[in-house]
Amino acid sequence: MAMFVLVVDTSFMNVSISAVVRDLDTTVSGVQSAIALEALVSAAFILIGSKIGDLAGRKRAYVLGLLGYATGAVAMTLAQSLTAVIIFWAIIGGLGASLLLPSMQSLIHGNFTGAAQTRVYALVGASAAIAAAIGPLLGGAITTYLSWRVAFGLEAAIIAVVLIGIGLVKDVPYTGPREIDLVGAALSALGMGGVVLGILVWQEGGEAVGALILVGAVALFGLARWLVRRKRAGKPALLDPNLFRLPLFRIGVTQQMFQQITLGAAMITLPIFLQMVLEYDAMEAGLSLAPLSLSMFALAILAGKRSGNRRPADIILTGFVLVVVGVVGLLLVVPRATSGWYLAIPLVVLGSGLGLLVSQLNNYTLSPIDEEHVSEAAGVNSAAGSFGLSFGLAFAGGLLLAALSLGFTNQTNASTVLDAAQKEQVATVLEDDAQLMSNTQLNELLADEPPEVAAEIVQINTDVRPRALQIALLVPLLVGLAGVVNGLRMRRLPDPSPNSAIEGAAFG
């Protein structure tokens, strides 16, 4: 139940973007930033969260993680501003996720053995897969016929049920070293946080973007050097740098990040297109996204059970090829789409590719890891995935708004209908706050303008939005191509060996 809430949460937010924007009187970019920030906080602190669970107790960390997520869910039912969403849902909820995921894995690993452990992990993995499949539909239905606040209230109710039954969960003591690598933890959070926060600040038109990204990059480089230094000195480190000497782990983590960047970019661009360009409500958006989520679910299950003697590297390569084909299909369809049905075939192809990746990447990445390091390696794998998701959300969203602003400015300056003063006014508004809005919203804002001026600006909006979305879709396209190149490299590596220690990472 806890895993179901973790996975379904972002789906609810994505299909409710337009409703949240309207009810909180905010912007699409603001909501998109909150979604990216939630994934970023989870990524930045998941390795630290794992260590907190070891030192403070896995069950205690699990409860704290649930309470953090419940705080975010309850806040969403009551929030009256974007600030509340960012503080309680994105930051506190993200911190809750960073505690919840590693402690969940440790509790299952310590409470069950053998076939029982495998069955429990399968149940948790199935819960995550079902949540991913039905999340857009469930969120769309609740948002359209009730309210997006009810959807998050449902999350809080599920967490309450889990907490009521917490007495059934037995703690698993930690027997390893208790020294904390505070410097490694700080560099980890600063590195991932600096890069993605820099992109979010750029998206919002803030300053010091380059400095933030540079700080993040320097911190990540410093983390790598620090871990090596700690290892040579024989001191406990945030994670063992020797993990990255294993070719399967190293390339698997990279592919995991690429997959999540692709997913994050698609998760932000497609709902925006459906809700702000086609002006769909949450239910229509959820139905339109169903081909992606359902095909991803079906292929993940099918490939996981019936891969037979096929090499994992071949399945992963096929997955990234399908991702590239699906994104190319979306790029061709977006300017012509007058209905969500136009997106169905490319979404099935894209979802099938992501499903193949989901079925293989966790096991492939963690196959060379021994029992002693599996929890640590799974944390790195999860952190890479969460970082990729937040990066995809932030970068694709930021690129969309930058392309929108530039395209709007260029077409406005080229207009023969708008006079110099009107062109200057448009440029000033875009410089202060570039927004993506529907033609209906734009017509309301232009109600007092002369008809010919209003018609010209609406026409520019109609022309620019699909092109901006196409530019944003270049993110999953280029990352998918990088995944194909890595997939070709994977084929030259030996196949992973079966490893019972990795069952716990299947839902990471």
Structure commentary:
The structure is a single chain. This protein is mostly helical and 508 residues long. It is 78% helix and 0% strand. It has 18 helices and no strands. It has helices at 2-15, 17-24, 28-56, 58-78, 82-111, 114-145, 148-164, 182-203, 209-232, 247-277, 282-306, 312-333, 344-366, 374-414, 420-432, 439-445, 451-472, 474-490. The longest helix is centred in the last third of the chain and has 41 residues, at 374-414. The chain starts with a helix and ends in an 18-residue tail after the last helix. 52% of the residues are buried. The model has no long low-confidence stretch (mean pLDDT 84).
Key features?
508 residues; mainly alpha; 18 helices; 78% helix; globular
Number of alpha- plus pi-helical segments: 18
Uncertain ranges: none
Report strand %.
under 5%
User: What's the overall geometry?
Assistant: globular
Separation, N- and C-terminal Cα atoms: 15 Å
The biggest beta sheet is recorded as: none
Task: Return Rg in Å.
Answer: 23 Å
Order of helices and strands: HHHHHHHHHHHHHHHHHH
Helix-strand category:
mainly alpha
Task: Let me know the number of strands.
Answer: 0
Mean pLDDT: 84
Helix content: over 70%
Summarize the structure.
The chain is mainly alpha-helical and 508 residues long.
